[in-house]
Design brief:
The chain has three domains: 119 residues, Rossmann fold (3-Layer(aba) Sandwich); 75 residues, no CATH class; 152 residues, Hypothetical protein af1432 (Orthogonal Bundle), CATH 1.10.3210. Helices cover 61% and strands 7% of the residues. The chain has 23 helices and five strands. Strands 2-1-3-4-5 form a five-stranded parallel beta sheet, sandwiched between helices. β4, α4 and β5 form a beta-alpha-beta unit. The chain is globular. The chain starts with a strand and ends with a helix. The relative contact order is 0.08.
Length: 374
């Protein structure tokens, strides 16, 4: 593992380098953005960790440039700076965020987690493709609706949260930024309502404005994503009715994001994705076509992106496993189990018999199938 640490303060760089000594990683340093970019032109690096507040080129600007020139490099911010604009922009271009002062053990644990992710996805082409993603396609109408609601004095943050929670791409970005160490404190944020409350109206407004600038809006070739959004919302709502109250927020989030990998595909391979989503493409089960066209299943792409965006592990595991009943039977009934059931029912598919028997779902499935006939 090769790390590049960037800070304009030499003492901080020396301290970080000493703290990471003995890990077996190769540690390089740069005293500013321009020096870091020059270094990257000549050396391969797996991870860059940059301070946010630096002269000439700040950390957000550096990470944005790295995302363009070297998309396969994982990007992390290190900041004690609380300016929301810098933090938000850093959140767009950083996969991870650390607070100053940061316990070295936290950085070590996160870097080891990143090593594990890279081992799961050794394909450099996939790493580079996902590394370019700072936001996902969003329907233009949603930007209008959210901005109008934010500007309406009679609207509440609950109204804003409800709108955002219905759009997988916007939902994913809000959750990612809200889990920035500066905003979340010590608690992982696992619901949109909690994220909106923690961020506040002004920060949400700034995020939406930046999303509008950096997001790829859905044009004609990507119209099928509107159907994915609609289906994901239905799955999220139905799945949430199948779990205990303390799991509803996590279940809704897994449901709304369970097809986020298809948004990833639309960003990195729009032409192939449009062909894949075309209703004239024969057959309901397109898993073989999916692997042929893209080599990696969408659940893995979605899980990979959420890993890099620092999502809570239960959400990532739910997205990865929601369509694998055998894997789901290895644990207790979970949000991913509820999403699997809801997705099957709403897609007109039969729930795996062993799965149904394992969780004693015969009566539940009978009611669901009667109430949700496709």
């Amino acid at each position: 593992m090769k790390l590049l640490l960037v800070d304009d303060e030499r003492m901080i760089l020396s301290g970080l380098k000493r703290a990471l000594f003995g890990t077996g990683w190769k540690i390089f340093t740069a005293e500013g953005g321009e020096e870091a970019l020059q270094f990257l032109e000549e050396h391969e690096v797996d991870l860059i960790i940059s301070d946010m507040l630096m002269p000439k080129m700040n950390g957000a600007e550096l990470l944005e440039e790295v995302s363009k020139r070297h998309p396969g490099i994982i990007r992390a911010s290190l900041s004690g700076y609380s300016d929301p604009d810098v933090t938000i922009k850093g959140g767009f271009f950083a996969h991870q965020a650390f607070m100053k002062p940061c316990d070295p053990s936290v950085i070590k644990a996160e870097v080891r987690r990143i090593e594990e992710i890279l081992e799961l996805f050794p394909d450099r082409v996939i790493q580079n493709a996902i590394g370019t993603i700072t936001s996902l396609p969003v329907a233009p109408k949603l930007f209008f609706d959210v901005k109008r609601t934010l500007a309406d004095p009679n609207s509440s943050m609950h109204d804003v949260a409800k709108l955002i929670s219905e759009e997988p791409a916007m939902c994913a970005k809000i959750i990612q930024i809200s889990n920035n160490a500066i905003f979340r404190g010590r608690k992982e944020i696992k619901s949109i309502s909690e994220a909106i409350t923690r961020l506040g109206g002004q920060v949400v407004t700034n995020i939406i404005a930046m999303l509008e600038v950096y997001s790829v809006s859905m044009n004609e070739p990507s119209k099928p994503l509107e159907k994915i959004q609609s289906h994901s919302l239905k799955v999220a709502k139905l799945a949430s009715t199948l779990v205990e109250p303390d799991l509803k927020d996590t279940t809704f989030l897994v449901g709304i994001l369970h097809r986020i990998g298809e948004y990833v595909r639309m960003k990195i391979a729009p032409d192939l994705m449009s062909a894949f989503l075309n209703p004239r493409t024969k057959g309901n089960d397109k898993s073989h076509l999916e692997r042929y066209l893209f080599k990696t299943k969408s659940e893995q792409l979605g899980g990979y992106l959420l890993h890099f965006w620092g999502f809570p592990l239960p959400i990532i595991e739910g997205v990865l496993n929601h369509d694998d009943p055998e894997k789901l039977m290895e644990s207790d009934f979970s949000p991913a189990c509820a999403v699997y059931i809801a997705n099957s029912i709403l897609s007109g598919k039969t729930v795996n018999e062993e799965f149904a028997a394992h969780f004693d779902l015969a009566s539940t499935l009978a009611v669901l199938e009667q109430n949700h006939q496709v």
